[in-house]
Design brief:
Elements (H helix, E strand, L loop, with lengths): L18 H9 L7 E5 L5 H10 L6 E5 L5 E2 L5 E2 L6 E8 L10 H18 L3 E4 L3 E4 L4 E10 L2 E9 L14 H5 L5 H21 L9 H8 L6 E5 L5 E9 L5 E5 L2 E5 L6 E4 L5
Parallel strand pairs: 1-2
Antiparallel strand pairs: 2-5, 3-4, 5-9, 6-7, 7-8, 8-9, 10-11, 10-14, 11-12, 12-13
């Protein structure tokens, strides 16, 4: 009998998503979603839908990639995930709301995702403004990137589902690691898209009003940024310290600093992090 090292653990089962089944399950009772497309590999789901939006593609399309090879986060950061280990999804919508209100779509997406994760996995999460879903220990579970193309908006979401610790950056985690149990990607995707539709429909009906739609209240209930002392790193490399006091009517973070109150759009900020106190 050999005294060599034990055999490596088998790779986790990562079954593919079924586009036809997802489309049938989603569109039968939906007034928003038209179809779910699943591709085995793509450069970027967001880039694909932005290009299709520019060519006149109507809203209501969901594009899912089993493996995304040139995915982008905010500020052109890369987003990578092993094949079938996560949910890499972009959706195309054409909201009839004032342009300034469209910044709320990233926040709306985060609320819908947090609710879906709670429903499907019971994992406790929070939202870090403007676009991250965090586990209870502060590790990143998902990121969101919204891009405009004329009157259309494409919202991309990348969720770590079955990603192992050795496949993740030090700051990341996955739903299966947080839950300690397998997570059904299809169930999570459907729950998220249905939660998104509920909020999106209500938000569009009141022309993007975050208060009248209830979105502002729901976002603040999930948000772990508002009410904390933060350090904000700006695009020029400078930083400022203050207290994140609110999210304003246009989805900007309101930060009170020693020099006064400022409103920060997501494009103005490279990083918002809580101030760690010693002791």
């Amino acid at each position: 009998m050999s005294d060599g090292p034990p055999p490596a653990a088998p790779a986790p089962a990562r079954p593919p998503l079924d586009a036809a089944a997802l489309t049938a399950a989603l569109t039968g009772s939906s007034d928003l979603w038209r179809a779910v497309e699943v591709v085995e590999e793509i450069g970027s789901t967001n880039a694909e839908l932005v290009a299709r939006a520019a060519s006149g593609e109507p809203g209501g399309l969901v594009l899912v990639a089993e493996h995304q090879v040139t995915g982008r986060g905010r500020l052109d950061r890369t987003w990578t995930s092993p094949p079938r280990a996560g949910l890499t999804v972009s959706v195309l919508v054409r909201p009839d709301v004032p342009a300034a209100r469209r910044a709320w779509l990233s926040l709306l997406t985060g609320v819908a995702l947090a609710e879906a994760v709670a429903e499907v996995t019971a994992v406790r999460t929070s939202l870090k403004w403007p676009n991250d879903l965090l586990a209870a220990d502060g590790a990143k579970l998902a990121g969101i990137l919204a891009e405009s193309s004329g009157q259309a908006v494409v919202i991309g979401t990348g969720v770590n589902v079955s990603t192992r610790a050795d496949e993740l950056p030090d700051t990341g985690t996955s739903l299966e690691l947080a839950a300690g149990a397998p997570v059904d990607r299809a169930a999570l995707l459907l729950a998220w898209l249905r939660a998104f539709e509920t909020r999106y429909t209500r938000w569009v009906e009141v022309l993007g009003d975050p208060v009248g739609s209830g979105l502002a209240r729901e976002y603040l209930a999930w948000c772990s940024t508002v009410g904390t002392t933060v350090t904000v790193t700006l695009p020029d490399g400078s930083t400022l310290d203050g207290v994140a006091e609110a999210v304003d009517w246009d989805g900007r973070l309101v930060v009170r600093t020693e020099g006064g109150t400022i409103e920060l759009a997501s494009g103005d900020v490279r990083h918002v992090r809580p101030v760690r106190r010693e002791g």
